[in-house]
Amino acid sequence: MRKLPIDFNDAGSGLKREQYVHTDLHDDTHEVQDALPRTDNADLHTRIISYCESFKDQMSIVEMSLSEPPLCFSCCPLKGDLLVGCKNKLVLFCLKYLVINQDLTLLDFERALILHIDNVTPTEIAFCAGFIAVSTDLDVLILKLEPVERDASNTEPYTYKISAPEKFTDEAVSTLVPQLEADDFVICQKPVELLGEGSKECGILISLESKGLANEEFFQVQYVLYRRFAPDLSSFVSSVEETKLHSLQLLPMYQTGKLTNLHCAKRELLSLFCFFSLPHIGYLYAVGNLVELISTYQYSEKSQQAVLTPQFLHVITSNSLQCFTVRCSAAAARDEDPYIDTTLKACPPVSLDVCALRMQLFIGLKAISHFKNHVILLTKADTEDITERRNSKKTDSAKLKTPPESEPGWNLYIVNTISTIHLYKEMVEYSKIYTNVKTESCIHLLSEAHLLLRAALMDPSLMDTEEREELLEAFRESCAHLGDCYSRFDTKDSHLALPYYKMSGLSMTEVLKRADSVLGDGTQKYEKGFLFYLHHSLYEDLNEELSEELAAKVLQIFHLAEPSQLPRVLCSPCMKNACPQKVQRMILVWGFVAEPRLLRQQTKRQIVPTEFAIHLKKTRPGLLVASILALHENSKIELDEADSFFKVCFFNENAIPQLLVDFWEALLVTCPKQELLQELLLKLTSHYVWRLSGMQLPDTKPLKTTEDLINSCCHYGLIFPWVSFIMSSVSLPDENYPEDLSKLQSLLCGPSIDITSVHPFLEPLPKDSPTGLSVHVLCATRVGEYEKSIDKLLDRCPDAVIPYAQHELKDEKRALWWNKLLPELCKRTRHAGDSYPVLISSLKETLSVIAMELELRDFLNVLPDDGTAAFFLPHLLQCSQRKLAT
C-alpha cells in the first residue's frame, strides 16, 4: 500500500488548445454550437483540415446544458450512453460517432429520451444496457428500456405513458398525515419487495418523452424490480440520513472471456446484477434473464460506501476497508452454459454463503472507487482526539468548521489487491487444515477459490494468452481439488465428483492414482462420490484402457463396495487389460463359459440348473444372469434353452421369473441380430403388459432400472415429455409398478420396436386409465394417427394436449395446429365443465403458436366464424404484434 500525493490544481495544464462542442438541451431544441459547424460544408471542410493538422495537441469537449439542475448521472459501460437524473425525470443522451474521414472520428451526445417519474427525486442512478436503476433514500426501482418499432411516416416526437396501480399506498395514512403534527409522529410505510411484472404495483407513474430524430427508435419501459425499506429506528437515529440507501450499482458480465475462447474482442452482455446497500446490510440481485435476490451482506459496522466487482464487494466504514466474496460468476456461468449442472459440468451454487475475506484498518475513510486490481480510497485524517470526538457528537453541529478549501488531512490511497492466482493458492493451502476436520468448510473454501478463477476468466479484458493459460491451469486444478472432496467425503452432493473430475481434464488413470494418494493404502472405505465417478467413467465408451494393475485395483474397489456390479465393470472397454485370475468371484464367469456343466445339466432333453446355480440365484443373481448371457453369446446355449433354464430355477415352468426378464434386458443391451431383436422386444413388451394389466409384482428386485437401460441400450428411448406429463398426476401403488410401465413406455419411444407387431399385445391395458392412455396414444402416434391421438387426449387428459402438440406437431404435421387442434378446442370450450379452464389455457397457447406461424390473412381464415374466438381478440392482437416485432 502506498500513499500518493496529488496536486489537483495542476490538472489539464499541458493542454495547448481546446475545442468545445456545445449542446443546448432545452425542451424542444437541440442546437450544436462548436468549432465545426454542421450547416456550412465549405466552412466545415476548412475547419476539419485545421482540426486534423492540430489533432495531436487538442482536446474535444462536449457541453450539454440542462433545463433543470442535475442531481446524479451514470454512463453505460456497454454503449457509452449518458443518463442524467433530475427531480422527477431522467434524461438519456445517446453517444454518437461522427465520422469525418477515415482518420478522424468525433464523439457527440444527442438527447434521445426523457423519463418522467412522478414524485421521485433520485439520489443515485445506474445505467447499463438499457437497464435503469434509481434510488431515493429508502426506495430502489429498476426499469428496462426496450426499443419498439414505429410508423415510418410518423416523424413527430412521441410520449409513452404507463400507469401502475397504487396497490401499496396506505390510504389511511395518506388521509391522516395532514391532521398530525410533523414533530409528534413519524409515518413509515411497510417494507416491500416486488419482482418482475409484479413491480408494476409499486404505484410509480412513468412516462417516456422522445426527443430523438425521425430515424431514431422508440422505447417502452418494463418494470424489473422495486424494493422499499422502512427507516431503521432501532438505534434511535435522529433522521433518515442515518439509514438511507447508498452505493447503487449495475454490474455487467459479458459473453467475452469464455473458458473455451482465447481470442474474443467484442463485448456482449451475458448477465446483469444490481447492488445497493443500507448502512448495515447490502443486497445483490440478478436482474437479467431472471430477477432474484442472490446474496445479502451483513456488515460488522455502519457502512459509508461500497463498490461491487465480479470477484469482490469492497465496503468502507469510518475506519476499515472490508472485502466480501460475491456470487456473480456463479449466476453468469449458468446463464452462459445450460449444461453447467449436469454430469458434464458443475459450478458452486449461487446460494453459497458469502464470506468476509479480510479487513484493513484506515483512519477517516470517506469515499471508495475501484479500477481492475486497484482500490482507490479517499480519507480525511482528524487531528482531534478520538475519545473527545466521540464525546462531542451532540455539539458538533454548533462548532465552526474550517472551510473545505483549507482543511488539512485529506489523503488519497491506491491499494493494490492481491492477484487472483496468488489468492487462489492461499485459499487452497488454507483449506488443507479442514481436510480431516470440517468437510463442509473445506468444500466451501475450495468453492470460493473456484469462483474467483471463474470470474477472472470471464473478464473481457483478459486477452493475454500467457495469463489466461495460467488461469486455465489453476481452474483445472481447482476442479480436481473439488473432485477429490466430493469423491472422499460423504455429502449429499457427492455426485458432483463426476463433473468436476471431467472439467479437470484428468484421465481415469490419474484420478485413480490421486485416490490412492488421498486414501492411503486402499483399505479405507470408498465413498459413493468416488464410486459414482467410476460407474460413469467405466460405462461410457472411452478410449482409455487401464493398466493391468489399475484394472485389478478397480475390481478390488467394487469387490469391497458393490460386488453385484462386478459383471458390468468387467464388460467395460476400459477393463480390457484386467487379468481374469484376479477377478476374485468373477473368475467363475470365465469358468462357466469354459465349462457350462458347472451351471446346467441336461436330463431327458431338458436343461436343469445345478445346485450351484440355485445357490447363485439366491446369493449372486447378477452373476448368474451374466454367466448365462456369456454362454448364449458363445453359442453354448440357445434362447429357448435359457428361458427354460430360468423357469426351472424357480421351480415353475409356466411362470416368467424376474431373472428371466433381467436376462432378456441384458441380451437386448448386447445388440442382437435383427430376427432375435424383434423376438426379444415382443417378449419384453408382452411381459410388461401382463404385469401392468394384472398388477403383478416381480418376484425379485430387477437388476436394471429404466434409466440404466436408457443409458446402456440403444433400443430403449427417452420417454417423451408429454407421456411423463400424463403420468405426473397419477399415484401408483407400488414402486415396481411404475418401473415396468416406464420400461414399456421407453421401448415404445425407442427406434427399434415394430409398433404394428406389438399392438395386439397392448390390448389388455384399459384405455380409460392413465397407464393405458399413455401407451395407446404412443402407439397411435407412432403409426401416424395424430388426429386420433388428439381426440383421445382431449377426452381423457386435456392437460397433456399442448405438451403433445409441442412435441409431435412439427414440420409437415405443423398444420394440425390450426386444422385439427384449434377447431376442436373452440368446439369444446362452448360446453362448460371441469376441464373448461384447461381448455381455455390450451386455446390461448394454440392461438399464440398459430399467430407466430401464419400470416395475418391466413391466420384470420383459420379462425372459426361462429364467434368463439372473438373473446381472445386482445390476446390475438398481442400475438400479432409480437410476430411483427420479431
From TrEMBL:
Domain BLOC-2 complex member HPS3 N-terminal, first and last residues per copy: 50-401
A Pfam family that the UniProt record links to this protein: HPS3_N
An annotated GO BP: pigmentation
GO cellular component: BLOC-2 complex; cytoplasm
Source taxon at top rank: Eukaryota
Residues in BLOC-2 complex member HPS3 C-terminal domain copies: 423-583, 584-883
Protein name stated in the entry: HPS3 biosis of lysosomal organelles complex 2 subunit 1
